[in-house]
Amino acid sequence: MIGRILRFFRRPEAAILDARPGDAAALAALHRVSFRHGWSESEFERLLSDRAAVAHVARANGGRGPIVGFVLSHRVDHEAEILLVALAPGERGKGTATRILAKHLSRLAAAGVSRVFLEVDEGNAAARKLYARAGFSEVGRRKGYYRKPEGDAAALILARNLNG
Fold first, then answer.
1. What sign has the CA pseudo-torsion 58, 87, 137, 111?
2. Distance of CA 119 to the CA centre of its chain
């Protein structure tokens, strides 16, 4: 009985939806919070308007709330590169990143993408864990790719085959 009552008062989980060019301002704001060098609203507008872009957002409160996460890829033929994955700090640990990435990969596969690549900072343990759970494995490394005040870090190049 108490479990049912608690579920009644719990907010619905974030809804995973297709991103639109009108989401550019929210994506830019979230990107600034998540990364050292944030992209501008106009950069996101341009990317989201590109026919080769595939993007999803996570909207809080069952889709009625603000954007709390996103993933953005660029497709070329049968390959895609995940350019960005960002999640609001308060949304971490709730499974939202896993859900948004799964939907995104499913959409890419449905569009005929057979292989997906991404780069991740070797020191980003949470992202590496997420990608490993999603079936990505390391296929390369770029030494000193990420410039940081505390010392440069390598970019790990990860890949995953889709559709078999």
1. positive
2. 12
Q: 79-87 and 115-121: which strand pairing?
A: parallel
pLDDT of residue 147: 78
Which structure tokens are listed for 115?
């292989």
pLDDT (tens digit per residue) in 92-143: 888 999 999 999 999 999 999 999 999 999 999 999 999 999 999 999 999 9
How far apart (Å, rounded) are the C-alpha atoms in residues 45 and 117? 23
Domain encompassing residue 57: 2-161
Asked if 48 and 28 touch (Cβ cutoff 8 Å), the reply is no
CATH of residue 108's domain is 3.40.630.30
pTM of the predicted protein model? 0.87
Domains held by the chain: number: 1
How far, in Å, CA of 85 to CA of 69, rounded? 8
DSSP notation for 10-39: SPPPPEEEE--GGGHHHHHHHHHHHSSSPP
